[in-house]
Batch of 4 targets.
Target 1
Amino acid sequence: LIEPDGDQQRSEQEKQLPLPEPRSPNEDEPDTVEWEVSFKKDDELGIDVLQNDTNDLRVNKIKAGLISRWNRENPGKAVRPGDRIFSVNDKRGNSEELVSIIRSCEELKLGIRRIQRLRVEITREEGAALGIDVSASSRCLRILQIRDGPFNDWNRRVSSDLQVLTHHEIIEVNGISGTSDELLQAVRSAGTTINVRLRVVPRFEHARGGLRPRARSPSGSPTSSHSSRAVGGSPTS
């Protein structure tokens, strides 16, 4: 057995969120979803964000405050770490402009975007390993470890929310979805270019899973960032 990662600790807010039941991947689920969060700013916003991209804010941590309160009152539209704030009061701009609006306005309407599915195109030399270990579920392959290889190369080229992480689940390979054995066979029979679709698993959902099964390399046999900042206090006079 492989122990869960030690650096995946959940925040207090994540522990309060309703945990989804284990389920098979829904292949019809959209790649991204968007919704609005609205409230009067009578308290701290209670989030840390990453400004590693230019036109939105990535939620890095949720603490006590308005977002935590919103999540308790609206569990179906709860904001989680990894979600993106792409507009504030119907205005879009660079990340500094969004932070400025949040800090200066007494009423806020935040546009939130969540990535639920990733589409990744990787290339490899003929017959080369992919550099990942996976565990097999009924209709997906959960990534347990990423080493040097095509997936690691992809991660170096893209922004943090488009990176493939160790708790994501492969649900489609070159247009083929099915059982874990069918997905493994699709990986092994693929050529030098592989198109992969993955389910993005929230970190708090990943953390609830406990011990993990023995890892497998999909191209072989079984095998043994940025700083964040707080935004949005109550308006000052």
Target 2
Amino acid sequence: TKQTVPLQSMAMLCAPRNAGQVIVAASTTLIVGGVLTYVMSQHGRATNDLFGAASPAQANTKELIQPKAFGSCANPVGELKWTADRSTANHICCHNRDYAEYYGYWQQTTFPRVLTDGETITFYDSVSGVPLFVAPRGRSYAQFYSESRRHGWPSFRDEEVVARNVFELADGEIVSVNGTHLGHNLPDGRNRFCINLVCVAGMEPMQGHARMDR
């Protein structure tokens, strides 16, 4: 039996603290691959230096979400970490601009609850394998985990973004350089990237491939 969490409850928990920055204009729920998802049809926009002129593909963001062989992706998702569901990932990451995995889904996976001090996790695109986020940075893992648990989705800050591979569209949607839908920017006074775990649970590229997470 799956618990249905109303859209308003999800929006309040994963919304920015400043009123008016996120506008929820729909209350649709959808079951995809056995996972409850939600739709938010309009989001506030915030600026972020990491997504500015220094990001080489920023001027071509429309190309990122153009139809490809598999929705907005070149191909389906690959093998995923943390027991993330591939069917859900294929829908949310490649055939979707608005929906999300259900509130708290990431905590139902094997995602680690504790890390050794100083250790970080690199989050890879579930489709292409490029690095997208490295966390924690600028805070402890306990702080990262607590904030993510409070909002219901993994929540990243500017310091944790691999800027060359992550882009923000005009409506606040966050996508990878390969067109994978990741989530949305829901600021709470500063940028907070509310991200679907199924879209950043890709496996680390094979050894010998160039690392791009620094």
Target 3
Amino acid sequence: QQLARGAIILLLCSRALSVHLPTCPPPGFDTVKGFNLATFSAKRWYIQEQMQVAAVPAHAHFCIHADYKLLTKKTFWGFDIQVHNVAADDAPPHNVHDSGNFICAKIIDSDAGKLAVGPCFLPTSLAGPYWVIAYSEPEGYALISGGAPTHSMAGGCCTGTGVNNAGLWIFTRQRDRNEALVQKVRQIAADKGFDVSVLEHGNQTGCSESINVIDQSVVAV
């Protein structure tokens, strides 16, 4: 009788928990409209906050930035964009993690800001979604997600934490953190249904020019 009672309590608790978890992705969830990829990729982005996923080095939140270069022709595997990510370890001597020419992106739906990102030497069918959820060039911000957030959490919806279908990022054009702007983008993410508690702060303070790797040589793969 005591075991049966315990089972009933667990069942009721699990049902109560499931009732409070959100539906993910949220109804009507979508990306930007009228996205201008050429403008988006014209200048460097600085990552102010990001979700920890398998493709992102752990404990490397220092001077994180990303560059995107539209290619004049598709690569052998059909990629359209060279992606260049740089991050340095949090702790001195701040060893740099530089993706070089390893990562590329394929345009899936340009108007909706939907790309697929993966290693340049692999078929695009193995690339993972990279979606622009919100973007304002005049205000200098972008909200990026590794596809639709399909995992229900108490604080909202999340993507996975692996390599594909994973990640959430807040980009700004300005390197120095603008707290008001970052909070605005966090609110946009929350309004879209994301659990923003997964976001970790980037550190753009005291970045040296030696970390700003500018060369983006493209290898035709």
Target 4
Amino acid sequence: QLCLVHKLGLRIFQMPVTVGHSCEAPQVQLRVSRRTWRKRLPGLPLRVAVTFVLLLLCPARSFAGCRVSRASLQVQRYAEQPAVDSLRLVPLKLASAVMGLLKPVFALQAPVQAGSGYDKWQVRKELEAEIKSAPVLIYTYELSPFSQEAKALLDAMGADYKEVSLGSEWFLASPDAAAKRAELGSLYGRTSLPHIFIGGRSVGGLMDGSPGLAPLQESGELLESLKKAGAMPDDGLFGFFLYSGDHLDEKD
């Protein structure tokens, strides 16, 4: 485009010249023909205007090209599946194994903490609405390292997810949050958090479940599951612009 403008500019101001020798001096002199000036002057303002318009358009087109290129790079980055840092997850895997031994205890404790004063069917209706409200839904504790690691993994994937916090920890949960935790245990057999749903299907927690977020990542199935659920940007040219990528937080 810049070359085109440059050539057009030369075309505007290019004038035929005549070469002659002066009797008074031996050097060569260049003289522009008056007839040529008169012939080209009427069209000169129009050509100058066209040149300036092209000069104004070129930066805009270049910027648009850069913006589209950046969007394509963003989509490509989201399409690539990050590798799992196995060493960093070792402590969490050990802790998950210990918590697994306490699973029967938590299964009995959750209904006791929730009590019997809540409407079971109303809570289940709320859970169903929350699970269907986003491609990926994650129930979390704010102080849980498992919850933080699960969100970090989803962020690294570039997935769009909705977080529903059930409090700082299980022993600090409000009555409503305790009721949701108890019904999650009744419906899905899991009271520990995080509890992750992809496309409305429970995949468990970070390290365990059906089969768990980290196992899905290690097997290479997580990216495809997120794409099928609609939690990833489109692979097309404008997919990054059409994709919101906003993480919605709901604090109970």
